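Reopening this one. Same input as before:
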Amino acid sequence: MYEYKEEERYILWLNLVLGPDIKKYNDIMEYYGSAKEAFYDCLKNSSGFSKMNGLKVAKEKLAPRANEKEIDTYLKQLEAANVKAVTLESKGYPELLKQIQDPPFVLYIKGTLRPDIKLPIAVIGSRACSDYGRRVTRMLTTELVQNGACIISGLATGIDSIAAEAALECSNSDYPTVAVLGSGIDVVYPASNKQLYNKIIERGAVISEYTIGTRAEKYYFPIRNRIISGMAKGVLVTEAREMSGTRITVNYALENGRDVFAVPGRITDIKSNGTNKMIKEGNAKFVTCVADILEEYQIYSGNSRVANIVDVSSLDENEKMVYNLLELGEKSFDEICEKTDFSPVKLGLILTSMEFANIVRKLPGNIYSL
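Same output, byte for byte:
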C-alpha cells in the first residue's frame, strides 16, 4: 500500500468531502495553513469555518465527516482499485500543471504518471471527425511520438481516441500517452473505450481530479479540459467546428501561455471552420507537417513529412485507386502500373497531378509514397 504523508491524508479528506472545488480548497488552506489544521478544527466542532465568508456550507459538510476511519476507508478503496493519488503537496505532481490558474488539488492516477514529461503535446478535436481528421491526426500523432512526444488526450470518441491509439502503436516509445477523464478514475466513459483505457494504463497513465466512483456528467468535461491543456507544452487541434468543447481547451491553453497549433481544412468544411478560424485570428500556428510543431521546441527531424490533408472524397476514381494502394506503403512506379493496370503514360500524368497537389511524394529510385 502506498504510504501517504500526514498532510496528503487530510487533503484527500477535503477532496472526498468537497469534491474538486479548488476555490473552497484555496480558501480553507489560506485560512488554516494546512488541511490537517482544518481537519482537527472540524473534529473539535470549532466555529472556525463559520467566521469565513462563503464557507459555512463547507463547515456543514466537513464537520460531520471529520474522522480518521473515513479517511482510512477511502485509502483502502484507492488501494483496492489500484489507484494512487497525488496532491499539490506531493513530489509526483506534474510541474507543468502546477503553473495553471486553477490546478486540481488532487489527481487520481492509474498507471504511471511521470511528473516531468519531456515533450507533452495535447491532441484534441472533433468527436464526430471526418476521414480527413482521422488521417491527419494519426499521421501527426505518430510522428510526434516518434520524435519523443507524449500525447495528452481526453479518451473521448473521435480525435482523442485516434490520437491515443496512434501513440500506442509506436512501439519505440516507452511513454506514449496520458488520458484525462471527466469522471472518476475507475469509471470509463465512453464504455466502448475500456480496452483503450487498459492499454493506456499499461504504458502511460489515466488521470482524473474526481473521486473514485464519480459518474461522468456533461458539465465535468469542460472543466476537465483545463487539465488537458495544463499538462501539455502545446495543444494541437486537428479538426474542430467553430463552436465546440475544443475551443474551451484552446482558451485554457492561451490563458496559461501554452502553444496552440491547428491543422487547416477546406473552407467549405464545417468540421474545419473552428481550426481555420483559430489560424485566421492568430490564435494558433498553421500546421501542415510535424516539423511545424517540433521547431517550436528546437527539435528537428529529418523524417518529418508534409501531412497529407486532402480529403479522399475529393479525388477522382483513378487518383483514389493510386491513393488506396500507397496507403499500404510506398511503391515503385512499375508496381503501381502493375497493380492498377494503368499505362505508363496515364500513370505518369496521375502521379504528376497528385505530386503537385502535395498528395504523394516521389522518392529516389522512382518510388512513390503518401
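So the earlier flakiness isn't reproducible anymore. For the record, Residues 315 and 323 are 9 Å apart (CA to CA).
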